[in-house]
Write a structure and sequence with these properties.
The chain is of the alpha+beta class and about 475 residues long. Helices cover about 20% and strands about 40% of the residues. The longest helix is centred in the N-terminal third of the chain and has 18 residues. It is globular, with a radius of gyration of 24 Å.
């Protein structure tokens, strides 16, 4: 396949490209869903093709094909060049790429047990047992379990001399309990919502999740929520579990620091950004307890790789340091606008799309203590867990997030359970109010496999390391 991508680059050069790169991508997925001890579905899919990206006189062209014979590759390369020439009529400045050392090599994500070789019977049995245990709880309407597996192999070459092969394997699973009664529906998920917890790992990750062990507790909480008190409306101290902190990072920090949004190059899906290039080193984004890092080298992260889809090596990039905004996620094209080189954040959804700036593993650095320590140090407030909904404006300023469950904190203890909890805020005010962040022992690298961006839309797999955190004077409930 390296010969194929080199051939594509040569064909693009022969057609008139000043710069060219090509990616062959082969993807394989498997998803299983069990509901109430019955199979809902087993979905398997595979895809393979090549995408060719070119610059002609400073303008981009891109074309892709699922057929990789010599004639089709030459035709696709010529089409990419023709598209670039047509783009030169647009009223915009020609593209200039910041330099990168051409890379050659191979990278594989760590894995102990290939999830695609695990017998189907074992996978189904795991989900059947988890849903059986949930159904032991009286009053539960639906008990659901899911497994999601993903493998991507890619080959990249560029006219600058890069030649890269990479393989990523990701595995995850989760359970969901739904209770219905008196016009109310309540849900509890484990270990996180939206099909659980996915990591760049093999079947060993699924085994370690302990779905069966947590099944009864998850179902019990779903049923108890039916008769729980509605979350009150008040301004109070808010404690979030690590999964909700991860979602907060994703929406109110991860997306705003994508430099194409900041420069107005990508606004069609989910808007632009509250930031400007002049904010680097000056804007107080959060309290001094908050440091955020984008790290594409973290083992186990969905945003981990050896090189991005421009051939830029994986990097650890400071985004916020002790509350002060420091840096953006950038590409070879955008980095020059801030006199930097690329942060290595360009990735594409499959072979059929050109790469966009995407989050890697955007994480909060751990501080001290556990969730129990943070709750124990809180006189009065509300603890919320497990994301259920999110809404944020097109500049990532005003937000409202809902969680599956909450409890009143009174004198350092969790007391009354609340249903339908939500909270609202303004991004920088919210993060500046943070006065506690958990330590390494409570920090989890969560996977987000469904991050949407672009037009046509693309889906990226990104990661967020997070610990429980506390925020003061937050509006919770409906005003």
């Amino acid at each position: 396949m390296l010969d194929v991508v080199r051939q594509a680059v040569e064909a693009a050069g022969a057609a008139g490209a000043d710069y060219a790169d090509a990616r062959v991508v082969r993807e394989e997925t498997e998803s299983l869903t069990v509901r109430n001890q019955e199979m809902e579905g087993i979905d398997r899919a595979s895809s393979e093709g090549i995408g060719i990206r070119v610059l002609v006189a400073g303008y981009w062209g891109f074309a892709a094909t699922a057929r990789m014979d010599e004639g089709e590759i030459a035709r696709t390369a010529a089409l990419a060049v023709a598209i670039a020439r047509a783009a030169s009529r647009l009223p915009r400045e020609p593209v200039s790429l910041t330099p990168v050392e051409p890379a050659t090599g191979r990278w594989d994500s760590p894995m102990q047990e290939d999830p695609f070789t695990v017998p189907l019977e074992e996978k189904v049995a795991l989900l059947m047992e988890a849903t059986r245990r949930m159904q032991l709880v009286k009053g539960l309407a639906f008990a659901e379990g899911s497994i999601d597996l993903f493998r991507r192999r890619s080959w990249f070459a560029s006219s600058e001399g890069a030649a890269i092969e990479q393989t990523t394997v990701q595995s995850g699973a989760g359970i969901e309990a739904t209770a219905i009664g008196d016009g109310e529906m309540q849900r509890r998920s484990f270990p996180n919502s939206f099909r659980g917890h996915i990591a760049a790992a093999g079947w060993e990750h699924v085994r370690a999740l302990g779905l069966g062990e947590e099944a009864e507790r998850t179902a019990t909480e779903a049923v108890e929520l039916l008769t729980a008190t509605e979350c009150p409306s008040e301004r109070t101290t808010l404690v979030l579990d690590s999964g909700q902190v991860a979602l907060q990072i994703h929406e109110s920090i991860g997306h705003p620091v994508e430099l194409d949004r900041v420069l107005g190059m990508e606004e069609a899906y989910a808007g632009s950004s509250l930031l400007s290039p002049e904010d680097r080193g000056r804007l107080r984004y959060a309290s001094d307890l908050v440091s955020i890092t984008a790290d594409a080298t973290l083992a186990g992260g969905l945003g981990t790789f050896g090189w991005d889809d421009e051939g830029v090596p994986a990097q650890r990039v400071p985004i916020i340091v002790d509350g002060i905004f420091h840096g953006f996620l950038s590409s070879r094209e955008t980095a020059g606008a801030i006199d930097q080189t690329s942060s290595g954040a360009m990735r594409a959804d499959g072979w059929q799309n050109r790469p966009l700036i995407r989050m890697t593993n955007v994480s909060i650095e751990p501080r001290e203590g556990t969730l129990a320590d943070i709750v124990g140090d809180t006189k009065d407030g509300i603890f919320m867990a497990t994301n259920q909904s999110w809404s944020i404006d097109d500049r990532r300023v005003n937000f409202q997030f809902g969680c599956e469950i909450a409890w009143r904190i009174k004198d350092g203890r969790l007391t009354e359970m609340y249903r339908n909890p939500n909270y609202t805020g303004i991004t920088t005010e919210f993060w500046r109010s943070c006065d506690a962040v958990g330590g390494r022992e409570s920090w989890t690298l969560w996977g987000t496999p469904n991050c949407g961006k672009g037009q046509p839309g693309q889906v990226a797999r990104v990661g967020h390391g997070a610990a429980p955190a506390r925020f003061r004077d937050v509006q919770v409930g409906v005003r």
